[in-house]
Amino acid sequence: RFTQYLASRNTLFNLNNFLDKGALQGYDMSTFIRRYSRYLNEKAMSYRLVAVDFTKMKRGVDGVMRTMNTEKLIKTLPIIQNQLDALLDFQANPNELTNGVINSAFMLLFKDSIRLFAAYNEGVINLLGSTHPFHTSMPC
C-alpha cells in the first residue's frame, strides 16, 4: 500500500538530506536511511511506470514475466534493473549490520532482492526463448 501511495503522488519520498543528530549512532544510520529511501523511490517509480510490484507478482512457468510479450519485456526489464541498482546501492558491511535499524532495512532489501532477481531472470528467460530461432510452444 505504501508503494502504491508513493506511486500515486507526484512527489518523491525525499530523504536525501536526512540526518539524525539526536543520537550518537544517528550519523551512521542516516546514510542507510537515505539509501533505503532511494530504493523506495525507485520502487514507487517502477510501480508508476508499469503498475506492477515486481516483488509481489506471480512467478513460474505461467507467471507474469514468462508470459509477457517481447515488446513489453524490452520496456520492463530496464525498469527492474533500475530497481535492482537502487537496492544494491545500500552497501552495508557486516560491522554495520549489528545496528538494528540498518539490519532491518537490509533484511527488507534482501527479501526484495531475491524476488526482483527472480522476476528479472524469468523475463530474460522469456526474452531469450522468444528470440531463439528454434523456439516452439511445445516443451522439450
From TrEMBL:
InterPro entries: ANTH_dom (IPR011417), ANTH_dom_sf (IPR014712), AP180-like (IPR045192), ENTH (IPR013809), ENTH_VHS (IPR008942)
PROSITE patterns per UniProt: ENTH
Record domain ENTH: where: 1-54
Pfam families: ANTH (PF07651)
Top-rank taxon, per record: Eukaryota
Family: Belongs to the PICALM/SNAP91 family.
PANTHER family from the UniProt entry: CLATHRIN ASSEMBLY PROTEIN (PTHR22951), ENTH DOMAIN-CONTAINING PROTEIN (PTHR22951:SF11)
Protein name: ENTH domain-containing protein
Organism: Goodea atripinnis
